[in-house]
Amino acid sequence: MSMPQEPSLATSTPPDRTVADATCTACGCLCDDLIVKTEGGRIIEAVNACEIGRRWYFADHAHEGLPAATIEGRPVEPTVALDRAAEILGQARAPIVLGLTRTTTETVATALAIADRIGAVVDPDTSDGDRARLLATQRVGRVSATLGEVKNRADVVLFWGVDPVVTHPRHWERYSVEPHGRFVPDGRAGRTIVVVNASRTATAERADQFVPVAPEAQLAVLTTLRALLRGASPDPGRVERTTGLDLKTLRGLIDRLKAAKYGAWFYDARLGSGSGGAARIEAALALVRDLNSFTRFVILGLGGPGNPAGAEAALTWQTGSPSSVSLTRGSPRTMPGVTSAEALLAGGRADAALIVAEGELQELSEAARAHLERIPRIVIGPKATAPGSAATVGLDAATYGIDAGGTVMRSDGVVLPLRPPLNPSTPTDREWLQALETRIHSHVS
Question: What biological process terms from GO does the record include (predicted)?
């Protein structure tokens, strides 16, 4: 397959238009029912968007005044920047590919092709919560479903340690609580909503039951619930000391979950953050699995903004593992805690980085971020060439869902198309990567 030698840099100002069924990537809901209107090359309206979505659409996505490419902050011709990036990656002995969660799945696949060619480590999941989630899922498995199935069937919904009314505003109305489903025709009136959290949240205020659980007691609560589900009779005093809840409350909670015709449990990566995170997620996954001996119950993550599920899926399709994959030996291998971005950077073992669409790099430890700042970095993404950028080589790219198309994956595995309302005025990140791959091929051949 031939690759472009250099991406196109300019397009004309698009006509005013209205784009129906646009997909918003501002939060994990990935709402795909938006109507986005443009005027004079600017977005002026985003019908159906929540406040988070409106902030995303109305943010400054313009590229006027920004150079297409920079080296050490100095504007250069794109060909010069691409050659320098190819030289850095081609000569690197321990390169690493980061970011990938704020772009399209097609872009991730192109970045993986480069990683394979240069023998890099690829890790889109840089938070300890995400690593814990993946490890727990690999050990225990996960009883899952699509959000459409939850909408149509769930009569009991549990939000564990999350506050979707604030973080995922349309989750409540589109997927989990308010929608009228095929087997829940009364919508909210036909559902029981339970919230488990450390404090009373906005979601808890709207729920039917709130159970306060301190962060340090979550594992004890989860294991006690599982024991009660299996018919155990634990000592009431010991239960209260370890969980902070009386045995009657926990029995009532497990009875409510067992009584569901169809239950849905929602959580996020914070359950896996900190010490013992993988054990907490594993306990939740195992509890939901055991609930299926009594009824139908599923567990889903709320999902982060962008396309983290798509990045993990593309990596799994091509390497067999969703994160921390090393391609240094010509075949993929993964060793959690050894081939992760955090371990490689904190240990000073990476000598060059390709960062695509940034992602959640702030989740890296201080030591890892410090080393990342010391090594050459090729950054491809929106505003990568803005003043103050610390990129060794910066390549300004169009924004996915705004002026770049492709597909993304919702946290439940459903693939959604992006329908950008604006035409790109700068190359997409995928076009930059394709041009970079061509040059790397010539450097390493």
Answer: methanogenesis; respiratory electron transport chain
CA distances from 255 to 150, 231, 243, 248, 416 (A): 20, 11, 18, 10, 37
Helices (H), 244-320: 247-258, 277-291, 308-319
Q: Which residue has the tokens 């994959």?
A: 325
Per-residue pLDDT of 206-261, as tens digits, reads 999 999 999 999 999 999 999 999 999 999 999 999 999 999 999 999 999 999 99
Rounded to an integer, what distance in angstroms lies between the CA atom of residue 176 and that of residue 155?
9
Locate 125 and state its tokens. Answer: 């999941």
Judgement on whether residues 240 and 279 belong to the same structural domain of the protein:
yes
How far apart are the C-alpha atoms of 437 and 79, rounded to whole Å? 13
Q: Summarize pLDDT for 410-444 with one digit per residue, the tens.
A: 999 999 999 999 998 899 999 999 999 999 987 65
Length in residues, the chain: 445
The H-or-E segment that residue 264 falls in is strand 262-267
Neighbours of 416 (CB within 10 A): 19
Q: Model confidence at 92, in pLDDT bands (50, 70, 90)?
A: very high
Contact partners, residue 197, CB within 8 Å, separation at least 6: 159, 160, 161, 162, 163, 203, 204, 210, 212, 213
Measured distance CA(300)–CA(225) in Å, rounded: 19
Angle of helix 105-118 relative to helix 78-91, nearest 10 degrees? 50
Q: Name 192's bridge partners.
A: 156
φ/ψ region of 143 (left if φ > 0, alpha if ψ in -120 to 50, else beta) reads beta
Q: Please check whether residue 4 lies inside any domain of the structure.
A: no
Nearest to 336 by CA among 140, 135, 94, 120: 135
Cα radius of gyration rounded to whole Å, the chain: 23
For 81, phi and psi rounded to 5 degrees? Answer: -65, -40
Are residues 44 and 146 both part of a single domain? no
Q: Is residue 182 part of a domain?
A: yes
How many structural domains are present in the chain? 3
Q: Torsions phi, psi of 30, nearest 5? A: 45, 50
pLDDT in tens, 346-390: 999 999 999 999 766 778 899 999 999 999 999 999 999 999 888
3-state secondary structure of 365: coil
Q: Tell me, what CATH number does 106's domain have?
A: 3.40.50.740
DSSP three-state, residue 432:
helix
Q: How does pLDDT run across 22-38, given as a tens digit for each residue?
A: 999 999 999 999 999 99
Q: Tell me which amino acid residue 302 is.
A: L
115 and 239 both lie in a single domain: no
Domain residues for the domain of 38 are 16-59
Quote the tokens at residue 244: 């902070």
